[in-house]
Design brief:
Layout: E1 5-8, E2 38-42, E3 52-53, E4 62-66, E5 76-80, E6 90-92, E7 103-111, E8 115-124, E9 130-141, E10 145-152, E11 159-166, E12 172-181, H1 194-197, E13 203-208, H2 216-225, E14 229-232, H3 238-241, H4 244-254, H5 268-276, E15 281-288, H6 310-331, E16 337-344, H7 368-373, H8 379-389, E17 395-400, H9 406-421, E18 427-430, E19 433-435, H10 447-459, E20 463-472, H11 482-498, E21 503-508, H12 534-540, H13 578-589, H14 598-604, H15 614-624
Parallel strand pairs: 13-14, 13-21, 14-15, 15-16, 16-17, 17-18, 18-20, 19-20, 20-21
Antiparallel strand pairs: 1-2, 2-12, 3-6, 4-5, 5-12, 6-11, 7-10, 7-12, 8-9, 8-11
Helix pairs in contact: 6-8, 10-11, 11-12, 13-15
The structure holds (3S,4R)-3-hydroxy-2-oxopiperidin-4-yl beta-D-xylopyranoside.
């Protein structure tokens, strides 16, 4: 590449380099070489570095054109005088790029002696505060390191938008920098909508992050196939919602460090999208060991403060949950927040609580909740407060991964049953981060193991939601295992369909393989070009198209004077069996999804003649087990 081009409608073609990234915002490793409109491109041969700045504030970095090193030609951009690892050259995007459009950023990076860098992204949110995320990490080596086609985008809600280079210390050189608009690719219009296929079964939804909104094709896929529910991928987690600066300011002003201050500014783009398109939202997540700042558990909200005691943490928890729901209600009264992951990932595979401790870089296993409470006794108050403050119609879930492994599964059931008896929980979230591997027999969990978990969760009488579905194949294996993945997805969906009466939502953790937290293992059902993979076809094959249930919620649970036709026959199929007991529990737990006729309600009211209650379900089960010889 020679010379510099600004906003010229040219094509460029770049090779592919394998990159790994942790991807809160934007992704890398596009499959094909990029061709698209070049927005800006320079090899610094003309000595012009004027479109680059340092990061402002305390950043002492000085930028110049240098002949010390060059990846192409004889010059590159030199960033010298860096005093912190997060200092470095920044390129402002929102003056040359459009919102809601995706761009590829490519560049060469080098340290003077060793390269240790990251490509990052920064913007100011609606609260005016800067937010950061890493686009490409681990740009390490002893020579020029190439970043190819790191995807970046921003929305109208973001201002002062930059990409910048950071990491390591000492001088940093940049060469062959370009920003290219990702060419729009059409989606397949003529294939059936997943959400239509499953309309009679459960909601079909996906997680979305703000950067997803910028790809028109991506969002067209989201709306066509997975438009019944949105989960905000990262921005409704505690580390996004808790506002450290505001917490400190409030504490300083009032002396009160039990009333956490919060902000939904990072989630705004996705919530506005849900509001505009009238899509119900799953809240993810209130109480979690991960993506929760350590200072939340410390005296005075200080990073290095002493751990607070249980009483103070309970107050913080209550006030946090209260503020969370009240703020959502105030900002988004139109949105149907229909489900909420109250507690996420609290149990280990052996059924024990996590180890106590804080989050340290590189190891996110320990739980500060356990550190403060000594055990998992924080779970029940979390549900108690969520029940107290969640809006009507917002169902409360416990959510976990590896939820099909015995120790964890049994513990979740024990906990959920107890919470259910106390009226505190409505459902179980099966994250379902699965691994199809290279053959059905090697897959983990096996479809049978997964089905066993569905059966056991269903037997609790609680609702089930599949909350974060994806199924990986071996890393960097191209399309080789697509058919294996399809076979696996099909078997998993067969199991879910078998339990359709207990499952109210199936939510994918993403849509296209390239924009996934497990992108290198291509876990989703559409590819980076928005084309349906074999896995898509495998889950719509052989599915009986059922009529969608009436969307009119009914809380009908009384017989309105109707006489029973067959005592115990809640579903009016002229039989008394376990399905009747389950229907009663479902109607009690989730009346907006499960309905019962007046005749059914009359049949179901087997004890006390007081409308249907869980005691009726219990009595039917006792009767079926022969513990009671007559109903009532
Ligand atoms: C993941 C996000 O997708 C990533 O972007 C982030 O870096 C880490 O978290 N279980 C959960 C989700 O409950 O919140 C996680 O999401 C995936 C595992």
């Amino acid at each position: 590449m020679k010379g510099k081009i600004l906003a010229a409608a040219l094509s460029t073609s770049m090779g592919l380099s394998a990159l790994t990234a942790s991807i809160p915002m934007g992704t890398v490793a596009a499959d094909s070489a990029a061709t698209g409109k070049v927005i800006y491109s320079t090899d610094f041969e003309d000595g012009d570095v004027s479109l680059f700045t340092n990061r402002g504030g305390d950043d002492t970095t000085e930028l110049s054109a240098s002949e010390d090193f060059a990846s192409s030609g004889s010059k590159s951009l030199l960033a010298s005088g860096r005093s912190e690892s997060w200092n470095g050259p920044a390129f402002r995007l929102d003056t040359v790029c459009e919102p809601n459009t995706q761009y590829y950023v490519s560049a060469k990076i080098k340290g003077r002696y060793y390269t240790n860098a990251m490509l990052s992204f920064q913007y100011s949110g609606t609260d005016g505060k800067p937010k950061y995320s890493n686009l490409v990490q681990n740009l390490n080596g002893s020579d020029w390191i190439t970043v190819t086609n790191a995807k970046v985008s921003f929305t109208e809600d973001m201002t002062d938008v930059y990409v910048y280079f950071e990491g390591g210390d000492g001088d940093m050189f940049i060469d062959d920098f370009s920003i290219v608009e990702v060419p729009a690719k059409p989606i397949e219009e003529d294939i059936e909508s997943l959400s239509d296929v499953y309309a009679g079964y459960f909601r079909m939804g996906t997680a979305l992050t703000p950067s997803d909104l910028s790809s028109k094709s991506f969002m067209a896929l989201a709306q066509k196939h997975l438009g019944d529910s949105v989960t905000v991928g990262n921005e409704m987690k505690p580390d996004s919602v808790l506002d450290h600066e505001a917490c400190l300011a409030y504490f300083e002003e009032t002396g009160d460090d039990t009333t956490p201050q919060i902000s939904f500014s990072a989630a705004t783009p996705v919530l506005n999208y849900a509001k505009k398109n009238n899509i119900p939202v799953r809240i993810h997540t209130l109480v979690w060991h991960s993506q929760t700042p350590n200072w939340f558990f410390k005296e005075g909200y200080a990073d290095d403060g002493a751990w607070v005691d249980k009483d103070k943490m309970l107050k913080r928890m209550e006030n946090y949950i209260k503020a969370y729901f009240e703020t959502l209600e105030k900002l988004y009264p139109e949105i149907d927040f229909y489900a909420c992951d109250v507690v996420n990932e609290a149990w280990l595979e052996d059924g024990n609580p996590r180890q106590p401790g804080e989050q340290v870089s590189g190891s996110y296993e320990k739980s500060a909740w356990v550190k403060v409470f000594g055990d998992n006794s924080f779970i029940e108050p979390a549900f108690t407060y969520a029940r107290k403050y969640a809006p009507e119609g917002c169902k409360l879930y416990y959510n976990d991964y590896n939820e099909y492994m015995d120790g964890k599964l049994n513990k979740i059931i024990e906990m959920a049953t107890d919470l259910k008896e106390k009226g505190l929980i409505d459902g179980i979230g099966m994250q379902s981060h699965l691994d199809a591997r290279q053959s059905l027999s090697a897959s983990f969990p096996s479809p049978a193991m997964y089905k066993n978990a569905l059966a056991k969760y269903a037997a609790t009488g609680l609702d089930i939601q599949i909350t974060e579905l994806d199924a990986t194949i071996p890393e960097n294996s191209g399309t080789q295992y697509y058919d294996v993945q399809a076979e696996y997805y099909s078997a998993i969906f067969d199991a879910i369909v078998e339990y359709k009466d207990y499952v109210s939502a199936v939510i994918f953790w993403g849509i296209t393989d390239d924009i996934s937290w497990r992108a290198s293992q291509r876990p989703l059902i559409f590819d980076a070009d928005f084309k349906a993979k074999p896995a898509y076809y495998s889950i719509i094959d052989d599915v009986e198209r059922l009529e969608a249930p009436s969307t009119q919620p009914t809380t009908q649970s009384t017989s309105d004077g109707k006489e029973p036709t067959l005592l115990g026959d809640a579903n009016c199929d002229e039989k008394v069996n376990l399905a009747d007991a389950i229907l009663i529990m479902q109607v009690k737990a989730n009346p907006s999804k499960y309905t019962i006729t007046q005749e059914g309600a009359a049949n179901a009211d087997v004890v006390d003649n007081d409308g249907i209650t869980n005691l009726d379900a219990l009595e039917i089960q006792k009767y079926l087990l022969g513990l009671d010889t007559v109903l009532g």
